[in-house]
Amino acid sequence: MEWSRRKRWLLTILASVIAFTATFASSLPSGGSAQIKADFHASEFSNTLVISVFVLGYAVGPLFWAPLSEVFGRRPVFIGTFSAYTLLIIPCALAPNIGTLIAVRFLGGTFAACSLTNSGGSIGDLWIPLERNRPFATFGITPALGPLIAPVVSGFLAQHQGFRVTFWLLFAVSGAIFLVFYFCLPETYHPVLLKRKAERLRRETGDPRYWARHEREDFGLKAIVGKVLARPLLMLFTEPIVFLLATYMAVTFGTIYVFFTLYPSVFVEIWHFSQGVSTLPFLGLGLGSIAGCLTTGLYDAGYERAVAANGGKPVPEERLRGLFVGGPVLASGLFMFGAGAMFRGLFGFWLPLVAPDIINKLGVENTSYLLGSIILLLCPIPFVFFKYGMRIRGQSRFAPHQ
């Protein structure tokens, strides 16, 4: 990519801001959950679904947006999905009942998922593997902060203006960001750029010998389903590294989203905080996320040494060193939370819905200990892959072999 380092950093930051918007939207209703429940006379289950179905859309959307971006490029898919997501905020603000809000939120999450998956893809397009650690650390901070800042904003705003105002604010912010990236974010996907270059050279020279591999690939429906949609699922369930690390990340991701249903009830109903103040503990999670992302820079030097010692070839296992510390710290934090506070759920979509039943049977502290124990059981995964990952990768039929 023949772009200056400054331009690539600017595009990295822009892609990170786009991802921030999507995650900000995911937890926004948390701060106004009391108003949503009161205005719609909604049950606790339905109220929780308002957040959970948006996260469920994160699982559905990439099945479509990832393969489409490999056919048409990042930019057109970005524009289409982000505009749809932005427009779907309007019916959220005008929703006449809880059912409408839940349905529209699911659609919004499905379209917003592109902002997460394709932003990471765009950043990967901009940097060679050896340079990606710091850009991806930057990218990791912004989506992590989005869902933690949103409840604080919506908590204070909904307390005085109602929950609908929070969606109008989101619409204004998302619309402004859409305009910025519409005019500033170029295409970054290399095969599409080469295809455009070949088309331009054919027009300018009249020579049909200019062509790009992307033009001759089969992008029919059967090929997309077989190569692009089926392959991730096949890798997930046949490759131990993919499956176990995906499980690790799913539990971690879900643990964060548990707090969006936990905090409003715990700190208002038990500690008697005001609605706005009850969301301030999210800032602690935000500071922790920033600290965790910043530590990735500490491993850059070690990774570069490992690559140099490996003849310039990437050493994926070296990327796992951060988990050596992060996993145990997360587990210990959950144990401490269980010792001094209360807990009401587990994973991002399903478990927050069944959390009240779990607590009724296990109690607050034991539920927290349960989740901490699960995290603790997952902690050995990066250590095992660090030692045996090369051998396991060598046996994979999906690994590139030279």
Question: What does this protein structure show overall?
Answer:
The protein has 402 residues and is mainly alpha-helical. Helices cover 78% and strands 0% of the residues. Helix 1 (5-27) runs antiparallel to helix 9 (163-184) and helix 8 (133-161) packs antiparallel against helix 14 (281-294). The chain starts with a helix and ends in an 8-residue tail after the last helix. Mean pLDDT is 81; it is low at 342-351.
SSE order and pairing:
Layout: H1 5-27, H2 33-40, H3 44-60, H4 62-72, H5 74-87, H6 89-94, H7 98-126, H8 133-161, H9 163-184, H10 190-205, H11 213-216, H12 221-238, H13 240-270, H14 281-294, H15 300-309, H16 321-340, H17 351-362, H18 364-378, H19 380-394
Task: Please supply descriptive tags for the structure shown above.
402 residues; 19 helices; globular; mainly alpha
Biggest sheet overview: none
**Succession of helices and strands:** HHHHHHHHHHHHHHHHHHH
- Amount of beta strand: under 5%
Number of helices: 19
Evaluate the radius of gyration: 22 Å
Mean pLDDT, nearest integer? 81
Strand tally is: 0
CA-based shape: globular
